[in-house]
Amino acid sequence: MNHEQSRELYGRALSVLAGGVNSSVRATKPYPFFIERGDGAHVVDADGNKYIDYVMGYGPLLYGHDLPEPVAAAIQSHAADGPMYGAPTEIEVELAEFVARHVPSVEMLRFVNSGTEATVSAVRLARGHTGRDKIVVMQGGYHGAQESTLVEGDADNPQPSTAGIPEEFAKHTLPIPFNDPAAAEAVFEEHGDDIAAVLTEPILGNMGIVMPVDGFHDTLRELCDDHGSLLIFDEVITGFRVGGLQCAQGKFGVTPDLTTFGKIVGGGFPVGAIGGRAELIEQFAPSGEVFQSGTFSGHPVTMAAGLANLEYAAENDVYDHVNSLGEQLRSGLRDILADQAPEYTVVGADSMFKVIFTRDGATDRGGECGAGCRQDPDCPHYDHCPKTGADVADADTERWERLFWQAMKEQGVFLTANQYESQFISDAHTEADIEETLAAYAEAL
Q1: Catalytic: which of 51, 58, 142, 344?
Q2: Which of 234, 257, 427, 433 is catalytic?
Q3: Alpha carbon separation from 356 to 51, 147, 394, 440 (Å, rounded)
Q4: Is residue 420 annotated as part of the catalytic site, yes or no?
Q5: What's the pLDDT score for residue 271?
Q6: Residue 234: active-site member
């Protein structure tokens, strides 16, 4: 493939954008390819190269790059009426009603502009509600670029994970391993009276995709109930993708106190939301004492996109289609790995997928793993599966980024550029796309 135009654009970008990009994950080596347009399940770059797209905007594009007619019409109609008003509109009420009708934990919402803003606001609300300062997070979890969660280490020695965050901020965040109920119990035993909330993704989605061990979220629910803390599910990635319209909390049967949303809930436009019991959400100003505000919150075009997006999913077999393709792809990947790289692990659920380059995975995997690791304790390979963010970090991450991702790109398959970010299937993908992708995996591996 020729990438001359992308290289030239990157040179220009380096002069005016920090690192030549506006999000650090886009800074692929030796330089990123620049997208010119989307086409169904594909993207076309500035040099005319076409790729099957499994990045899908890092998750928001449930329908790919060609929106269903009702979704496109709703967006165009609201954009034509005026860009925004600084006043409420009916469409934001309708989207809130739809979400509250379908998501188990949600009675009321506050819309914001990004997943990061949603989790920032949810943490502030939890602290305001409880009068406590400390937040428990999962090691390897990701909740946006915010001070309260850009923290590494463990509960005994939390440290900022980036420059620019005072150590005094980090001491209020307590990281524990995902899927470790004993660690959760221990942190509550020591800090229970000071813990405002546990903030977790139902599935680790920015750390290679790690499914929860059965009962882990139930343990978090019980600990929060026992100590008067809030359980917050970050469903920015999983919301309206895993578990359909009930989201991952419906799939796993655990109801959090607060839920943060992003990505799909805005139909591919910048959006975030905090949902939960009315008594909690009403503590946001002006009805309560926890300040939260935003000029672009509830933007009518975004609200229209989100509502039309979700209504279309409710009225059509979108989830059946994307989840079936997910099963097909993960099953095919399992068979390829059995022959070519048996120590690697297929992970994912519904329309999410990834191959983790585990170094010490079981080399005699059979059908027990199904179409992706399910964290089943009865599986003979259970001990070899990655269960925490640290397990994924121990994988051969350099091989993924420097060799495998490049090889897939040259075969016309666009994957997330590191070992950690999830990959997504859209309604625009076809069985033929899946078969072409499997052939590319077999060749690259």
Answers
A1: 142
A2: 234
A3: 22, 29, 10, 16
A4: no
A5: 97
A6: yes
- Give pTM, 2 decimals: 0.96
Span 167-176, pLDDT tens digits = 999 999 999 9
Q: Is the pLDDT of residue 366 over 60?
A: no
210 C-beta neighbours (distance < 10 Å), count? 27
- Catalytic residue (one of 31, 45, 257, 263): 263
| 263 in active site | yes
Q: How far is CA 252 from CA 11, 212, 238, 357, 370, in A?
A: 47, 9, 12, 27, 18
The C-alpha atoms of residue 431 and residue 216 are separated, in whole angstroms, by: 35
Q: Which residue has the tokens 């209504």?
A: 311
d(CA 93, CA 300): 10
Tens digits of per-residue pLDDT, 299-309? 999 999 999 99
Specify the amino acid at residue 32.
P
According to the 3-state scheme, what is the secondary structure of the chain? CCCHHHHHHHHHHHHHCHHHCCCHHHCCCCCCCCEEEEECCEEEECCCCEEEECCHHHCCCCCCCCCCHHHHHHHHHHHHHCCCCCCCCHHHHHHHHHHHHHCCCCCEEEEECCHHHHHHHHHHHHHHHHCCCEEEEEECCCCCCCCCCCEECCCCCCEECCCCCCHHHHCCEEEEECCCHHHHHHHHHHHHHHEEEEEECCCECCCCCECCCCCHHHHHHHHHHHHCCEEEEECCCCCCCCCHHHHHHHHHCCCCCEEEEEHHHHCCCCCEEEEECHHHHCCECCCCCECCCCCCCCCHHHHHHHHHHHHHHHHCCHHHHHHHHHHHHHHHHHHHHHHHCCCCEEECCCCEEEEECCCCCCCCCCHHHCCCCCCCCCCCCHHHCCCCHHHHHCCCHHHHHHHHHHHHHHCCEECCCCCCCCEECCCCCCHHHHHHHHHHHHHHC
Contact 220, 231 (CB under 8 A): yes
**413-414 and 50-53 strand pairing:** parallel
